[in-house]
Amino acid sequence: MSWQATILTLFPEMFPGPLGHSLAGRALRDGVWGLEAIDIRGFATDRHRSVDDTPCGGGAGMVLRPDVVDAAIGAALAAGPARPALVMTPRGVPLSQTRVRALAEGPGAILLCGRFEGIDQRVIEARGLEEISIGDYVLSGGEPAAMVLLDACIRLLPGVMGAAASAEEESFSQGLLEYPHYTRPTEWQGRAVPPVLLSGHHAEIARWRRAEAERITRERRPDLWAKLHPDAAGAGAMDGRPAAA
Ligand code: ADE
């Protein structure tokens, strides 16, 4: 049984979208993973086919109804193996490579895409939905966030990426951002490729790459750097500014 993604959305026509192209698209056609996009509106019960209502307590926007969302989740669960059920929301736990790896190792995922102001809290609790955010910014809906999560999982499925080693070395796998890459021409617009990369000395190249990965991580992501060097946290790495080189 391949990795199964079920999307619950008011815009099923958005899928597979970008996931139908490149590596994910080929893997989809090859049956490495499967995708079903279910229209939440199909579970509305009134003659207006309404899926949302005004927020209790007042305020702007609309809230997805618990009964409609619950019926959609029930259908998703019935359609495939037992899988983690996630809801994409900016108030969720930040998505991490660790969570992506765990999801990719499982049977798949059910992803609920929010719209409007939110989703009735009772169905989130009743179904034990895991709330996931892809970053500290607000999208107009959860669909692009679901695509991001799926893309991150799919590339880790066996047979999707050509060279497994490139996945291993990439950003985050060792808690560091990636070192810079270069190719030919060795001189371009007056800019030379760092000579060590042309030296043929594998140990020196590895050392240079490690040092560059550390420098870039320190400068751009003091939060990641502090995780690797908790003892240095008090020495400036946690204050949001790059540590001294
Ligand atoms: N829906 C809207 N914004 C989102 C975000 N940042 N992450 C996940 N889902 C979202």
UniProtKB/TrEMBL annotation:
GO-annotated biological processes: methylation
Keyword S-adenosyl-L-methionine appears in the UniProt entry: yes
Keywords from the UniProt entry: Cytoplasm, Methyltransferase, S-adenosyl-L-methionine, Transferase, tRNA processing
Family matches, as Pfam families: tRNA_m1G_MT
Superkingdom of the organism of origin: Bacteria
Molecular function GO labels: tRNA (guanine(37)-N1)-methyltransferase activity
Location within or outside the cell: Cytoplasm
Main location: cytoplasm
EC identifiers of the protein: 2.1.1.228
Entry binding sites for S-adenosyl-L-methionine: G114, I134, G135, D136, Y137, V138, L139
Annotated ranges, domain tRNA methyltransferase TRMD/TRM10-type: 5-226
Catalysis: reaction(s): guanosine(37) in tRNA + S-adenosyl-L-methionine = N(1)-methylguanosine(37) in tRNA + S-adenosyl-L-homocysteine + H(+)
Family membership: Belongs to the RNA methyltransferase TrmD family.
Quaternary structure and interacting proteins, as annotated: Homodimer.
Primary role: Specifically methylates guanosine-37 in various tRNAs.
Name under which the protein is recorded: tRNA (guanine-N(1)-)-methyltransferase
Organism the protein comes from: Siccirubricoccus soli
